[in-house]
Amino acid sequence: MADLSGGCARSDALGILLETDPPAKAQAVQALHARVRDGAARWNPPRVIDEPTGLPGRPARPELVEPRKLGRRSMQSEQGRAVLLHALAHIEFNAINLALDAVWRFAGMPAAFYDDWLKVAAEEAHHFSLLSARLAGFGHAYGDFPAHDGLWDMCERTRGDVLARMALVPRTLEARGLDASPPIRARLQQAGDHASAAILDVILRDEIGHVLIGNRWFRYLCEHAQLEPHETYLRLADEYRAPRLRGPFNFDARRAAGFDEAELAALAGLDPSTAQPDRGV
Ligand SMILES: [Fe+2]
Ligand SMILES: [Fe+2]
């Protein structure tokens, strides 16, 4: 792994982002998280770090393809569930990279910002490890199936603006995961795959925390720049061509993740199937 540290845990995070081997990356994230927590590694918030080539570090496989080339999977067959678990592992692998990128890239934030995003990276590494272990139970490993090529895209588009990053990665992409999780979990449970369904429970619980962190820093940045959060979100979603939000929404999880009642009511307006914003999904 590249040693870029210079005594700064943000540079360590960049070194881990460059790591191409997924299990090594997951393990290194958790080790750095423990070192920062124990005071053995420290943040240097003002340091501006130059972007190296080769971001993000990722393995030669999976083959990355356009989303429309990925087939739909039946939950009834083992193969179908392995393909689903692989797709989820790919999302988690990308989520490790997205969280590490927030740590190294954006200088001048409070130390708590870096603590939060390193904690997110460590939890994404845990999710990736859980899914990899479950995939192994089906005789497969991460890399065995093709995967979505677009997950790093929003990270690149928002590389120059921490406010846009907070608006569009945790508050948009990760928040969509809150909506997507319960139906996937239900399909796994229905197929009798309780072990995989239990992993989805862990992921949903932690992801509420990630979106909450995104909301906290989005509001913090809005406050500092004296921007109105609702209008600012709509402006950024438009400017950066964020994916359009579509229901059904997981209102309970979104409320727990810090979206306010005005935001939930606006979502309810997009989703005719949920007239009552507090009904949940
Ligand atoms: Fe995750
Ligand atoms: Fe996450």
Automatic annotation (TrEMBL):
Alphabetical list of Pfam families matching this protein: DUF455
Coiled-coil spans in chain: none
InterPro entries (alphabetical): DUF455, Ferritin-like_SF, UCP012318
Name this polypeptide is given: DUF455 domain-containing protein
Species this chain originates from: Paraburkholderia solisilvae
